[in-house]
Specification:
154 residues, alpha/beta, Ribosomal Protein L15, Chain: K, domain 2, three-stranded parallel beta sheet, 3 helices
Length: 154
């Protein structure tokens, strides 16, 4: 096989549309734009969300307006009933929560929530605790320790 014998697969190359090149081409006279009107003019560009003058959807739905709080802290949450998989008296750290599959990654700080019951004492280290979760862990004979958050670099 030589370079001058190479050719693209049939159907993979398509001629570009050449408008305004006579009626025989199929794109003559009005060049595929129809007759008159805003869309037939050169330089036509509609604004995003423009609906021809009727009240746009974004203005008709007040619940879609508002703002996003950029200061909000997103937490990975773990309920205390999930901590029963750890053996009694063991230390539960954010790293152990990831290896146990209770948290996907250390990208977000971890918060322990109070759903369910805890059956045995544990030393739980996390970035935040709900008041009820802290009370339940301590009532089971365990201790809680808040640690600072170091975001995972990935």
């Amino acid at each position: 096989m030589r370079q001058d014998e190479l050719s693209p697969a049939s159907g993979s190359k398509k001629d570009r549309k050449r408008v305004g090149r006579g009626d025989g081409s199929g794109y003559g006279s009005y060049s595929g734009r129809g007759c008159k009107g805003q869309k037939s003019r050169s330089g036509y560009k509609m604004k995003r969300g423009f609906e021809g003058g009727q009240l746009p959807l974004i203005k008709r739905l007040p619940q879609k307006r508002g703002f996003v709080n950029i200061s909000r802290t997103e937490y990975s949450t773990v309920n205390i009933n999930k901590l029963n998989i750890f053996e009694s008296g063991s230390e539960v750290t954010p790293e152990r929560l990831v290896t146990a599959g209770l948290v996907k990654s250390l990208r977000y700080p971890i918060k322990i929530l109070a759903e369910g019951e805890i059956n045995h004492p544990l030393l739980v280290k996390a970035n935040k605790f709900s008041v009820t979760a802290k009370a339940k862990i301590e009532a089971a004979g365990g201790t809680v320790e808040e640690v600072g958050h170091a975001a995972e670099t990935s």
